[in-house]
Amino acid sequence: MIRTGLAALMMVIAPIAALAQDLGTLTVPGDRLPAGCGPQAPVQTTRVLLGQQGPMEVRNGNIAPYPSNPWKGTDRFLASLVRRSIDGSAPEPDGPPLDPRQAAAFARKYVEHVEEAYAATYSGSSGSPVSVQAVRFDSASLASPEPPAGNTRVRRGAEQRIVLGKAVVLVSADRAGECFDAIVSHVRAAAQQDPSQLIGLWRGTSTCTDRVAAPACQDEQVVYEFKPGAKAGVVHWVADKIVNGKREPMGELDMEYDRTEACWKVEFTSPRTKVVWRLAVDGTHMTGTARLLPGNETVRKVDLRKQ
Fold first, then answer.
1. pLDDT interval class at 16 (50, 70, 90)
2. Nearest C-alpha neighbor of 5 from the set 37, 50, 45, 43
3. DSSP type of residue 176
4. Which end of the chain, N or C, is surrounded by fewer C-beta atoms within 10 Å?
5. For the residues 242-250, what does the mean pLDDT come to?
6. Which of 146, 141, 138 is nearest to 117 (CA)?
């Protein structure tokens, strides 16, 4: 049974470390929303309920709502609410009810390693509000595509959980609709073009697909390493292949995200050939192609997993 309440959470309110990358980019521009979909107006009605944990403010059915819509910040209390909405509540230790000090220590676990939180609510033409909630951790290893095992949370009818670098984003509604779909598309696009999605070590295969256009092509086991580039929005790609169990360098290139094609893209030119590479990332899975120019023949397909 979850017994940690508002009083315990209020004991851990304090600023969280500032975040370098702004979660405010999750807010969907108005011109990308369908008709009838937009940020929900501030709720004016307020009720105060009394329970075992003391007074609890309720507005529009949401406990301790956020001071603005959208909201982003480092307040520990609000961040803990967001984290619980996304990951659910962890089971408390067996035994007698926690005293205030123990409850406060337990509540702090919800904001450990959290750098920033975000929450927004949209009104859709279907009448089902769409919520967007996100937390960014101090390590990408904590941003999981699934909530922690054993946690308890109330699911809504339509949900999309999206990993965005070091952040986890949950888009939810009672039922899907145009508003829900537009918001999910915006968040997924942000995930694809976030350089942190690419940064790291990847292993997989590079397979030849057109030996007529590229007769010297050979299937390869490959290791790709991506590092931050020299300027914002650029990722440095180091490509190796495995020969006799060892990595052999193939080359290095700088890539940028192409919004029109929704992929990471770079052209490679040598005295013998000109190739355009396109890579797309979905969580820890990468796919891509190499196409010869000017004929646009697809001569390679790659499939890799992040290590």
1. very low
2. 50
3. -
4. N
5. 96
6. 138
**Strand residues in the chain grouped as ranges (E):** 38-39, 47-51, 54-59, 62-63, 71-73, 114-123, 130-137, 158-164, 167-173, 200-208, 220-228, 234-243, 246-258, 263-269, 274-282, 285-292, 298-306
Q: What confidence score (pLDDT) does residue 10 get? A: 35
Report which of residues 169 and 262 the model is more confident about: 169
Q: Is the pLDDT of residue 12 over 50?
A: no
Q: Which domains does the chain have, with CATH numbers?
A: 6-193 (no CATH), 198-306 (2.40.128.20)
CB count within 10 Å of CB 302 equals: 21
Residue 156 per-residue DSSP state:
P
Task: Check if the beta carbon of residue 154 is closer than 8 Å to that of residue 131.
Answer: no
Q: What pLDDT score does 50 carry?
A: 55
